[in-house]
Amino acid sequence: MLYLLCILSVVVNCLWRRWFGGGYKNTWLGNNRAVQCTVYLLYTSVLAYYLSRFSEIWYNVIFAVFFAVFTYCQFWARGLGACFDIGRGQVDETTIKRYNARWYHIPCDWLFKNHKYGFAYDFVYMWLRYTMPLVLLYILGLATVPVFINPVFSMWIIVIGASISPIYAICWTLYERENWMFKKYWSVVGPTNLAEYLSGAVWGLWPLCLMSM
Questions:
Q1: Half-sphere exposure (CA, 13 Å, Cβ side) for 112?
Q2: In 3-state terms, what secondary structure has residue 153?
Q3: What is the pTM of this model?
Q4: Lowest mean pLDDT among 21-35, 105-119, 180-194
Q5: How many CB atoms lie within 10 A of CB 146?
Q6: Which helix (H) or strand (E) holds 35?
Q7: What is the CA radius of gyration of the chain?
C-alpha cells in the first residue's frame, strides 16, 4: 500500500508542481495561487494524516497540518528567485536585488566573491534554497518530548531537497545540448518546465521518508 501511495504522490506532485509553475493556465485549471495552495494543502495533509502512526489522533492531525503548511510555505511558495537558470541569465540591478532578497546570497557571495551569478553561484544558491527548509524540517522531526518518541523523518527527506538544484542544472544542460528533446508535449517547451515536472516527482517520494509508519 505504501508504494502505491508513493506512486500516486509522485504523479500528483509532478503535475501539481508544473501547474504551480504556470502550466495549464490556459485550461480550466487556471493559474490561481489560492486554488493551487488549497489543493496542495488538502492533498498533502490528508496523505500525511493517513500515513502517520502516532498514538493520539490529535498528534496525527497536528503533524499532517503542520507538514503540509510548512512544506508549502517554506519549500514551494518562497519562489526560485533569480537562480532558476543556473547561471545563464543576464544580470542587472533588478536581478541582483532578487538575489539579495534572500539570505542564501551571503554564503554564495563569500564562496564566489570574484565569480558571482555564474553556474556555481546559482547552483549553490538553489541548493541552499531547497535543502535548508528540509534540514529544518528534519531537525524539528527529531523532537522526542512530549509528543514524538522516534524521529519522524529519515535523512532522505534532506536528499530530496538537495536533488532539486542538480535537476535544474541537468535540464538546462539538456536544453542546450539536446534541444530536440524540448518539442511541445504537455507544456514541456523549455528546461524550467521539465525541471518543474521532475522536481515535483522527486518531492512526491516524501512518504518513503516517514519513520512513523
A1: 16
A2: strand
A3: 0.91
A4: 180-194
A5: 7
A6: helix 33-51
A7: 18
